[in-house]
Amino acid sequence: MLYALAHILREKCPWVWDAIEALNSQLFGWLYGRKLRGMEEVLGRYQQEYAVEYLREGDVVALVRFFEEQPEEAFTYFKPHGFDEKTMRKIQRSKSFLAFVVKEQGVIVAYFFMRCYFMGKCFRGYMVDYRQRNKGISKLTSRVMTDVAELLGIPSYGTIAPENIASMKSQNAKILRQLENGDYFVQY
Q1: Which residues have C-beta within 8 Å of that of residue 106, sequence separation ≥ 6?
Q2: 134-149 confidence digits (pLDDT tens)
Q3: What percent of the chain has pLDDT over 70?
């Protein structure tokens, strides 16, 4: 119900959605700000072959370029937000939209996020560069997001299309129910 309402508001009443997002960002920052201080320690655990970092202001243009380089089919199952510079800058500044990049030798090879809500839950998603698939990067993003959710003490959820078998396997998701559109609503 809330999931459907959120999508309706985002598409039909963007100004209402923006106001809700701004309020959620402030409340989440206020309620979880102390816990977020432990984020560098969590990210530090994953600095071997790849660098896992918060999305920084200086990464936004490179991330937009990353999205532009992905083939159209990469967006078949991944449409959580716009991919333009304005949207990514807004996400980067949000206290409740935890956005990350995975880099290999300074180049972005994956993007992942956790859209958190002040009431104590989050939804997550990820995209790996089509040239970097089958290297364990999606499993890496899953482990990081699980650790961040544990740090915050909140459950994490998502949606996965039944045809997206690779995502189901790499993210180790538990199916809670099937949504009206056919996607699985999952918990990680």
Answers
A1: 51
A2: 999 999 999 999 999 9
A3: 94
For residue 169, which amino acid is it? Answer: K
Paired sense of beta strands 121-128 and 156-160, if any: parallel
* Residues in CB range of 125: below 8 A, 6 or more apart: 78, 80, 112, 113, 158
Tens of pLDDT, residues 15-41: 888 888 899 999 999 999 999 999 999
Contact yes or no for 87/122 (Cβ under 8 A): no
For residue 31, what pLDDT is reported? 95
pLDDT the model gives residue 174: 84
> What would the two tokens of residue 104 be?
């290999």
Question: What amino acid occupies position 102?
Answer: V
Token code pair at residue 91:
């996400």
